[in-house]
Design brief:
Elements lengths: L8 H82 L5 H11 L4 E12 L4 H6 L2 E2 L16 E11 L2 H13 L3 E14 L2 E12 L11
Length: 220
């Protein structure tokens, strides 16, 4: 038995066309939603990136004066370090009061000191060069020279006075040699002198403060 289809062909074609339209509408709606979502996320990403850029620009604006202040401070520290080195160069390497206290302990009652001279000498391999750069702590230094003292120096002490006997001078030399405060004791002169009909012994003794280490060939 043959079936008879009463639905016209144009109706079926229209139905297929409507289904195709519905699919296209759904696809377009999906693409539209996807574009909206992408635009939202892209806008948020751009906003965050712009905020980071603005924050970086703000940091750079703040960093510039800080960098300038840091450079000024660094230059000031360098100047202070340079001044410290200069002060270390011109600072006396020995406490004169301690030297006088030690001499007062060593000098007997039979000796009267008339002069104590403390000066700094550069440790040089050439004795002539060492004499050239002598810097005296007292006021009799060379005012015409502005050269800073050498970094490696030693302190020389020269004492001048009178003693009742020559043996008192010899005893003082022996005490200076035994004292841990002094080294390289060098007798200058010892001679008789008459003061008010009394014969005394006038002397000069040089020595160095033992606060340095001398290597062979230096300052000999």
């Amino acid at each position: 038995m043959k079936e008879i289809d009463f639905i016209p062909e144009w109706y079926r074609t229209g139905q297929k066309r409507m289904v195709s339209y519905h699919r296209q509408y759904v696809l377009i709606a999906f693409l539209f939603v996807a574009l909206l979502s992408w635009s939202h996320f892209a806008g948020a990403f751009v906003s965050r990136a712009q905020a980071r850029v603005e924050a970086t620009e703000s940091l750079l604006k703040i960093e510039e004066p800080l960098l300038q202040a840091y450079n000024r401070t660094k230059a000031g520290v360098a100047d202070l370090q340079s001044n410290v080195r200069v002060i270390e160069r011109v600072r006396p390497r020995v406490d004169v009061s301690h030297v006088i206290a030690e001499l007062s302990h060593l000098v007997s009652d039979q000796i009267v000191l008339s002069r104590i001279d403390v000066r700094s000498e550069a440790l040089k391999s050439s004795p002539a060069a060492a004499r050239k750069h002598v810097v005296t702590i007292a006021s009799q230094g060379d005012r015409g020279s502005s050269v800073l003292p050498e970094e490696s120096i030693r302190s020389k002490v020269v004492i001048v006075g009178i003693a009742a006997e020559a043996s008192d001078v010899a005893s003082l030399i022996s005490k200076l040699e035994e004292s841990p405060w002094f080294c390289r004791v060098i007798p200058g002169y010892s001679r008789s002198k008459k003061i008010k009909d009394v014969v005394v012994t006038e002397f000069e003794i040089g020595c160095y403060v033992a606060n340095y280490v001398q290597y062979p060939g230096v300052g000999q």
